[in-house]
Amino acid sequence: MRKTKIVITLGPSTSKLEMIKTLIVRGVNVFRLNFSHGDHTTHAESIKKIREASKALGREVAILQDISGPKVRIGKITGGLKLFKGDTVILAKEKDETNPKVLDISYPLIVDMVNIGEEVFFADGTIRTVVVDKDGDKLYLKLLNDGELSSHKGVNFPQTKISISAITPKDEEDLAFGAMHDIDIVALSFVQNSDDILKAREIMREKNFEAFVISKIETGAAIDNLDDILKVSDGVMVARGDLGAEFGVTKLPRIQKHIIAKANAANRPTITATQMLTSMKDNPFPTRAEVSDIANAVYDGTDAVMLSDETTIGKFPIQAVEVLHDTIKDVEINYPYNKDFKPENSSDAIAKAAVQLSTNLKKEALVAFTGTGYSAQSLAKYRPKENIYAVSHSLKVQRQLNLVWGIHPLFVMEEISNPSQLLHDFVKKLLDENRIEKSKRFVVTMGDGGVYKGATNIIRLLDKEAIEMVLKYDF
Fold first, then answer.
1. In what order do the strands lie in the sheet with 138-143?
2. How far apart are CA 235 and CA 361, in angstroms?
3. What is the per-residue pLDDT across 206-215, written as a single tens digit (0 to 9) for each?
4. What contacts 116, CB < 8 A, 6 or more positions away?
5. Is the pLDDT of residue 148 over 70?
6. Which residues lie below 8 Å from residue 327, measured CB to CB, with a gap of 6+?
7. Which of 125, 230, 389, 469 could form a disulfide with 410 if both were Cys (CB 3.0 to 4.6 A apart)?
8. How far apart are CA 473 and CA 475, in angstroms?
9. Catalytic amino acids?
10. Segment 357-372 mean pLDDT
């Protein structure tokens, strides 16, 4: 089974129920809903279709809600504004209708934060300028290259410390929507520090919204504060679009490897995103460079790879997913399994020992009984070659684990505090449903009571003799 997961963004090309079913069958693990586009009615319909398709196929998949965050954009431009190297444009707090080269901005106070000599980029870094003068409410920008600018393009300030909240009023409304629809995973855009995540979690708690929180790493500040961000996040996304605009595309491979390595060591899943198969928006086949990009992300240790335009407006969404699947499968033939990280706590040490046992004793699989998903994640941290199966009493946890490398959510079981009874009921369910034969051998991790993060403290070896003994228990 494939270990690296596939996330795709739902859009006009993939919004029909039968298409969603096909994508699940082809291997999609997580569906992303981009809240920078569409309205709540559209997203509600998408959620309904994903859940319906998942139920029909008997495959639980996760839904990721990607909220907009404070994306800084210019205002409306009538037609296209042609720009030439050496010319000057003005970035102002307010629009000047008499001068087309005066650009207004969605967060006017940012003008006060930018200094002379700092760079300002537009349209994902394709148009670059430097601030040559500042006058009250205006920044005078000298163009460093030719280009054409249209309405509402993004603006990046790679050298400026921007102090604006990562959670906008729109985001709060979107989080309320996510709570109402029991979304599994939330991605936070443009986080700069741990306080941004803590603020989002507080808003979510007020709405009784328990979701996996993914921090999108797309600013220089987020790179500087990565360790603190990882401590309070459930995972991170390598958001290469804005990272490329902030740092330049030539630095992206190093930054990507840095983020993934840090996240792997911290036991936080990572999503690698943006332009993985851009050519497949219009072509049924990828470029060799794109396939190498996917492979390198997998070798780096990413938990998931993500498609955006390729599956929202692309002409070949199914083929794009198949390319991801086939590339990942080939990489995993000689993937560098069995990572040697230092355990962070006792539960983590149990997971490392279980992985070593499964390798040394040649067991076919690892099984994690997990209330929160953490113990299954801990097994995945060490990247075993053996499959990892997760069993939980929470359907939401099972769905969330679709994002984590190597984990295959098995089924939901009733919460049972007695480990012996839990093991008995688990084995009986497997046999009753013809999922295994008694000859199969497993390493099982579980806790001796209590459902909380880090409760795992037991390793059990299950082979034919142990399975027969477990079935003799009388409950």
1. 102-104, 88-92, 138-143, 127-135, 119-122, 155-156
2. 32
3. 999 999 999 9
4. 131, 132, 133, 134
5. yes
6. 291, 294, 295, 298
7. 389
8. 6
9. 32, 73, 216, 274
10. 90
Structure tokens at 145: 């290259």
Local confidence band at 33 (pLDDT 50, 70, 90 cut-offs): very high
Instruction: Say whether domain 81-156 belongs to CATH 2.60.40.2310.
Output: no
Is 475's pLDDT higher than 80?
A: no
CATH number of 346-471: 3.40.1380.20
Average confidence (pLDDT) over 342-366: 91
CB contact at 8 A, 394 and 403? no
Whether pTM > 0.85 for this model: the answer is: yes
Which residue type occupies 140? Y
pLDDT, tens digit, 9 for 90 and up, residues 255-270: 999 999 999 999 999 9
Q: What CATH number should be reported for the domain whose range is 5-69+165-331?
A: 3.20.20.60
- CATH 3.20.20.60-classified regions of the chain: 5-69+165-331
Residue ranges, comma separated, of all CATH 3.40.1380.20 domains in the chain are 346-471
CB 118 within 8 A of CB 161: no
Q: Within 10 Å of residue 369's Cβ, how many Cβ atoms?
A: 26
Q: Across residues 443-467, what is the average pLDDT?
A: 83
Cα–Cα distances in angstroms (integers) from residue 436 to residues 208, 223, 432, 459, in the given order = 38, 45, 9, 20
- Decide: 301 and 267 in contact? Cβ < 8 Å: no
- CA–CA gap between residue 338 and residue 360 (Å, rounded): 11
CA angle at residue 125 from 120 to 127, to 5 degrees? 70
